[in-house]
Every structure is written in structure tokens, then in C-alpha cells.
Amino acid sequence: MFIINGIVYAETGKIENGYLQIEGNKIIGYGAMSELPTTKEAEVIDANGQLIVPGFVDQHIHGAAGVDTMDASIEGLTRFAQTLPKEGTTTFLATTMTQSIAAIDAALAATRTFIESHNQPGQAQIAGIHLEGPFINCAYKGAQPEEYIINPSIEMMQHFIDVAGPGNIKLVTYAPEVAEAGFVEFLVANNIVPSVGHSSATFAEVEKDFDNGLTNITHFHNASSGHHHRTPGVVTAGFGLDLTVEIICDGVHLHPDVVKTVKKVKGSDKIVLVTDSMSAKGLEDGDYSLGGQKVIKVGNEARLEDGTLAGSVAEMNSCACNMKNFTGATVEEVIAMTASNAARSLGMDTKGTLAIGKDADVVIMTPEYQIEATICQGVLAK
Ligand code: FE
After folding, report:
1. 276 is catalytic
2. Looking at domain 55-349, what is its CATH homologous superfamily?
3. I need a surface site. Which of 74, 82, 145, 327 has the fewest CB within 10 A?
């Protein structure tokens, strides 16, 4: 396959009028249109002068199109994976939430089955699981149901790893201040990215885990202790320590000026854009459910009945466009925040940039981040 006549944002730099060559599920070449190889019988996609960028990696997404990871359904996960290329996402972590152990086990087992035998070219790939809850703090539960919240425990974490299958849990959101000693070290030893979230931790509590391998903060500013000059919290730690921070850049979860501030302090290499979207994304306004709770979707907001934000209904490409509009971020910076940073921190060496030998996960989009086409593992998504 050749994608021709586009601005190619390759790992090695931008090519103004270029092409990208794909064979099977890999990128095998790219260059200027003047050097386009003449090959017979290749599928050609004309980018018509638009941008050719790496497919987005969404490491925090609960659902879309009426499906939630917690539904524990192969059919549902298939619909989930098929709908995401529309927003430019080619790789994601199916994200669980606080529920009974049995319900979490069911979601982990279904996602494991999907990863083992249902990932296919032409649809977004489930690369693993983000376990969000039950290891959080009731004080910052957000939209997570309180009755099922438990303190982070190594024994329970080992149980979840056993159910999910080796290597499938890639990221765990947890509250360090209520965690068993050694919890963060246990995650690191299992190649799992530890992420502080739904937490009332002080700066010092975050820093202690940072010294032991903590690298990430879940939806920075949302559902955590903040930044106060006499009681420094998770937000202070996010600014003050060399941590990567997730941002829900939907214009609802964070004020644009806060996004601008985060971008200025952290820089584009320490920000990961996530949607944190729930099942109502892409559907009409109305009543939906999240972890057994009623959620009301109106426009671009989804809230519990008490008004608490219940995840987002945002698409990755609109979050990326917001980032550009709020901060003036360049395309290269947005690529870092939508693809490269997450791929790197999750240890997905074959994803996140356009380079020879990498997976053919490619988005063709306008400068305003409207998606023209998405190629997943070398196959054009329908
Ligand atoms: Fe959350």
C-alpha cells in the first residue's frame, strides 16, 4: 500500500510532499513524492495534501458507541475497537472501573480473550488493560462507586494479573496514601506503569512512590488533591516532579488556561492526551450507565445525577484539536501527546511514530484534526 501526496510526519522529520509505503502490517518506507517507487498492483490512498501522522494511542478509555469495558463482552469489545478509528485511535487500553471483584474479573477475562484472539487489522487494537479502581481513595472517588473501593493490595493485584493474563495489565491507577507497602515496586516489577489517581496524597507521599518507580498521573487535576501553597498535593507533585500527566482535553474537565499552564510547565514530552470516554460517546443525549450508576449525557458532558463528571464523551481528534487551540501546540507536539509518549511509557516499541519497521497505524487528517482516513495494522478502517 502507498499513501501518497501528503505531509508525512516521520520520526526523522517532516516531509512536505511525501509518501508512506506499507507492506502487510508494517511501514517499510517513506520519502518525497519525487522518489516514489514505481510498483505495480499496489493499493494507493491519495492524502490530497493532508497530514499523515501516527495513529493515536488512548491509554485511558472506558467505552464508546454504547459499549463499556465492564460489559465483559467480546461482541461489545469488537464494536468498541471498530468505532475508534473514526477518531484516529489505532491502539487503546480497555479501561476498567471500580466494581465488585467478580465484575472486574469478568471484564479482565473478556479483554484477555479479545487480546489473545480477536485483535484484527482494520480496527483499533486493544494493546492491554488500564485498571482504574478499585485501588483508590473514597475521598476522591469521582464517578467510581464507593462500596467497591479497596486499599491497594499486592495479593489482590496478583489476582488481577492472573485473571488478565501475563503482560496484559499495562497501567494501574491507584492511591499511594492508602496502598500497602511495596505496592508501587510490585507494579514496576511486573512491567506495569503505576499511575497516581483518585488520590488525596500529599506531595511527599507522591514523591516517595516516585522515588520507587512511579511515572504517571491519571487525569491530571481531576479527582485528586490539588495545588495549595500550604498543603501541596497530587497536582503540586505533577508540576514539581518528573512525572508524565494524563490530560482530558475536552474543554470540560480542564479550563483551557489550565491546559495552557500544564503545557508550559510540563512540555509536550510529559503530557499524554486521553479521552477517558464512556459508553455514551457517539450516541444521542440521554440516560446511560457507568459502573452500574445512572449517567446523563447532554452535549459534550456526561454526569452522574449529583452532577459529578462521569468520564467524557470526547474523541481523541477533538482533544488534539483543543490542545492546538488552547496552547498553540505544533503538529509534532500533538503527535508526542497523542501517540509517541504513551507508546514509549507503555513499552510498545512498534507504535507511536512513523518509522521503518513500525506497525502501519496511520492517520490522514486535516490541519484542523478532522480525520480523513485511518489505517490500522496496514488495513484501511471502514
Ligand atoms: Fe477516573
Report:
1. yes
2. Metal-dependent hydrolases (3.20.20.140)
3. 74
